[in-house]
Amino acid sequence: MELDIIASKIYEVRGQRVMLDADLAEIYGIETKVLNQSVRRNKDRFPQDFMFILNESDLQGMRSQFVTA
Fold it and tell me: Which residues of 42-51 are buried (b: 16+ CB within 10 A; e: fewer)?
């Protein structure tokens, strides 16, 4: 993928730059559920803050980023 396509999939949530699991799975050419399952099964291979679940406030903030993107 081109860098500008990847850059467009980076959002700011809770003051951190993040990518959605679906976008990351697409880049790697795998299903989202396979990515999530791999991370859950190999937690010791990833930083503790590698993955978190968005709350309603996070979703609202992302919606505003989608509008400005």
Answer: eeeeeeeeee
Please name the amino acid found at residue 11.
Y
Residue 16 phi, psi (nearest 5)? -120, 150
Q: Rounded CA gap, 31 and 25, in Å?
A: 6
How many angstroms separate the CA atoms of 3 and 14, rounded? 23
pLDDT tens for the chain, 69 residues long, are 588 888 988 988 888 888 989 999 999 999 999 999 999 999 899 888 888 888 888 888 777 776 655
**Contact of 11 with 17, CB cutoff 8 Å:** yes
| CA neighbor of 69 nearest in space, from 8, 22, 27 | 8
Whole-model pTM: value is 0.71
